[in-house]
Amino acid sequence: MSQLRKGVLEYCVLALLRDGQRYGFELVRALSEAEGLLVSEGTIYPLLSRLRRDDLVSTEWRESESGPPRRYYELTDMGQRALGEFSAEWIRFRDAVDALVTTQGEMGDERAH
Amino acid sequence: MNVHTDPLVDEYLRRLEVAAAGLPADRRLELVSEIRGHLREALRQVPEGDQAGVRNALERLGAPEEVAAAALDASEDSSTAVGQLSGLAVASLLMAVLWFAGIGAVLALGFGYRARREIRDSSGRKTGTGLATAGIILGWIGIVIVVVGAILIAVHPAR
Lengths: 113, 159
Prior knowledge:
- The complex is a heterodimer.
- Chain A has 4 helices and 3 strands.
- Chain A is 63% helix and 12% strand.
- Chain B folds into 2 domains: 3-80, no CATH class; 84-155.
- Chain B is 74% helix and 3% strand.
- Chain B has a two-stranded parallel sheet.
- The radius of gyration of chain B is 29 Å and the shape is rod-shaped.
């Protein structure tokens, strides 16, 4: 289960950046508000670092009106493409798993009766 | 609240630096700087002297050892993960070696350049740039051989 979560998490990060730049804290809090997705907020930063090194996101330091500058993350063209591919694949994957899991469950119910 | 004056935060960042010692220096600095920035934002909403609030923010981050382990894990993912060998790169080298009176050389160039583009766009999922480059170089040599051969035959027609 943790492998599954880990694999999907990076695309959730990309999806959060779809509508524009966000800074680290903002991203992490948005993820931790999604129930059951995130274990520890701190582990998102290594993930962001890897996405940057893989050229899926780019970063930029920007002044904030309150306090020190913030590091903003933004999707690159490659990140955009990866997200698009994942979204299409994910719908197929989700439907296939749903279909299997639901049928198995119903079969189990019938046996129990 | 100032991040740098809270002993709990100092202790957390110190433990993070120790736990992240195995990371390359730039990666470690980046991680510590991001976590420091995160805490600065998180503690902005915590009133001065609210120890429970500070503790809560640190707990949500996870243990520093856990964060560092995730960073070590992530750096292995991208530096040691072996991508899949590009079939086009293999085809390029094969065509260059077989040559086929110059036709192989032309195919080697086509496959080679396409392989390099495919590998570059794959963000590490495909490998074989070296093979593709070898195919391209041998392909060009193959074409030069054809051209020189054709010139020689034209200048010195068989007697």
